Amino acid sequence: MEHASAAVVIDARGFVTGWSEGARRLTGYPAEEAVGRAVRDLLAEDVPPAATPSLTGVVRVRHRDGSPVALLVSACPVTAADGTPGGYVITARPPGEPETSLAGQAFQQASMSMSVFDTRQRYLRLNAEACRVMGVSEEVLLGRHFPETVWAAEHTLGFTWHLRHVVETDRPIRYESYGGAPALNREHAWTTEMWPVHDTSGELVGTALAAFDSTEQYWARQRLALLNEAAASIGTTLDLVRTAEELIEIVVPRFADFASIDLLDWVLGAEEPPVMPGAEVALRRVAHGSVTEGTPEAAVHLGERDVYPPYSAPARAIREGRVVLGQAGEPSFTRWVAERDARAPQGRAHRRGVHSMMAVPLRARGITLGVAVAVRIAQPDDYGADDAVFAEELASRAAVCIDNARRFARERTTALALQHSLLPRGLPGQAAVEVAHRYLPTGSAAGIGGDWFDVIPLSGSRVALVVGDVVGHGIPSSATMGRLCTAVRTLADVDLPPDELLTHLDDLVTHLATGDEADDVAELGATCLYAVYDPVTRRLTTAAAGHPPPALVLPDGTTRLVPLTAGPPLGVGGLPFEATELELPEGSVVALYTDGLVEDRDRDVDHATGELCRALSVPADSLDALCDTVLKAVMPEEPSDDVALLLARTRALGTDQVATWDVEPDPARVAATRQAATEQLAAWGLDDAAFVTELVVSELVTNAIRYGAPPITLRLIRDRTLICEVSDGSSTSPHLRRAHAFDEGGRGLLLVAQLTQRWGSRQTARGKTIWCEQSLTPLF
Question: 710's torsion region: left (phi>0), alpha (psi -120 to 50) or beta?
Answer without folding.
Answer: beta
